[in-house]
Hints:
Structural class: alpha/beta
Radius of gyration: 34 Å
Largest sheet: 7 strands, mixed
Helix content: 25-40%
CATH topology of the largest domain: Rossmann fold
Distance between the termini: 98 Å
Amino acid sequence: MTTTTPDTPPIPGPGVRIDKQEGGRPAPFDGWPAFIREFESTLAVHSQFVLHGNLRDWFLVPGRDGGFTVVPLASLVWRVLERYGYSCLVVYDQVDGFTLFPRTDGDPRRAQERQAVERLLDGSGAKKEAGGDKDGPLAQLYERIKAVTQHPELRIGLVVDYASRLVRDPTELSPAEQDFFVGCLKLSETAPRKGGFENRPSPLYNPVVWLVQSDRDLPAWLGDGNVRVRNIAVPSPDLGEREKTARLLVGRMPGAREEAGNGALTGRAAAAAKEFAAAAEGLTLAAMGEVTKLVADRGTGPSSLPEAVRTYKLGVLDNPWRRGYLLDRIRQAETELPARVIGQERAVAGTLDVLKRAVLGLTGAQARRSVDRPRGTLFFAGPTGVGKTELAKAIAALLFGDESAYLRFDMSEFSAEHAADRLVGAPPGYVGYEAGGELTNAVRQDPFRVVLFDEIEKAHPRLLDKFLQILEDGRLTDARGNTTYFSETILIFTSNLGIQEWDPQREVRIVKVTPDQPYEEVIELVTEGVQKHFNLVLGRPELLNRLGGNILVFDFIRPEPARRICDNALGNVLRLVGKELGQTLTIGERASHDLLGWCTEDLANGGRGILNAVETGFVNPLARALFDRRRLEPGGRLTVTAVHRDPPSVELR
């Protein structure tokens, strides 16, 4: 059995002090990660450990100079065992076989112990007792685990890396896999403890440490009810750990430290490190190291680290939000948007305020952390057919020059609890797992999008938890473990809440808000309906809080805006007749007056109702009249002299 020597840690640094207190106990592991302190404190009571989560990261440990250095997980485990006099740590994976910690470094005692461990791993004298496939790799691994855990003299730790890949499915084990884990279960219960460890009065086990992506990657019965197996989660780094790592990484950049004194970070470098740590929310410490490589590769300094984080997360160098012309386009939109979304001046003005702060990078400026939140969040509430969806399309065209940047999800399709799988992907083992989620895939492919969640009140309440994570952290992890960042998106929710209310006594919906009410009253009633739904019906006040003051209430289409919408619709018909048929079509004064009256008499369905009325009362009979003419000479001129309502028809001259 061949063995290799581990690589050096990614960022070499000073070793850890091995100071001793009176009475022989080592100095406490203050400043070490909490999960490794849990491992260290339970060595006397557990023979096996299952570590899962953030395993491929770097981990901070105190250095001799009072600062910190970073080491990979295997090195971290060895530093704990080394403190108590273990001979070595053996790390196994299916590719490289066995790796030994530490190097001998010319120490005769270390060299002798290493040779003894290598002979042990070569399997001399080991009996093949591990079930089914006597010569298979799992049977051979079992022999080594047994030899390590039950050796009467050598003090050894064993890490089984990539243990998630030992079996295809932990719920459907093959006979050889079943026998392997049953054997390991028995070893956990029968492993002996040894005394004589340095600075530990209690006897300790030769521990086995399984490294898995998820605690579900091993058979559940291996640890359930087994007091000898401990399950420990390895969390992602918190802000404090990111700040320490940021100072360590920034300190290695040229010109980041003062030349005189103790070589502390300059004020500018310290500020850059703090901003770097905040921007790196959601990244591992190892990923922070990769970000500094981006900066070094581009020849920039610490001040560019936050932008490098954005590039690392999103995978794109171009940032449309930094394009100077956007400021001019938004200024121009102050006159263009009200003309496109007619009768909603107040909602349009509120939308433009959100876009202005998004372009200036001031979204969430009042919060301590704002870098990862979506660029803008809007909640459009109000009656149906008044321009909510149209305004979302207009925003996409305004910001990104293309309405295809507008991504719409009809939330009526997500009323079932399992429908969330469509957004983030099906769980492992289910149909569609490999395809990923519709939302996460689309945003990961193009992070600069307007995302519309239409009629949000129709979505299943469990789905709203996904939106809570997006609004707060600006990211979402799909079923495959890939993180999608929403920090460059504009999120828009639309809703008809507050317009109607359910009457439980009569078991019918009653109209609560009508077009004859003034706009201020509409705002009050709709806002009240939205708050009641989120606070009382859904029990999600936290989601409402994330929306803040970005709830914009649309008004009903009033008579004057209705006439403008109708005029625009009729003008569109006349232009299309000229383009498609080569005819110059005009509408007489009387016909125009009648059409305006008929198409705007019922405003309950808003602008959409007006357009439907124009189609039914004018476009359809016009098409019949033009079709009946059989031949239309290009360049002809036609006038609609009269329109009739019942049955719908037009008179052409």
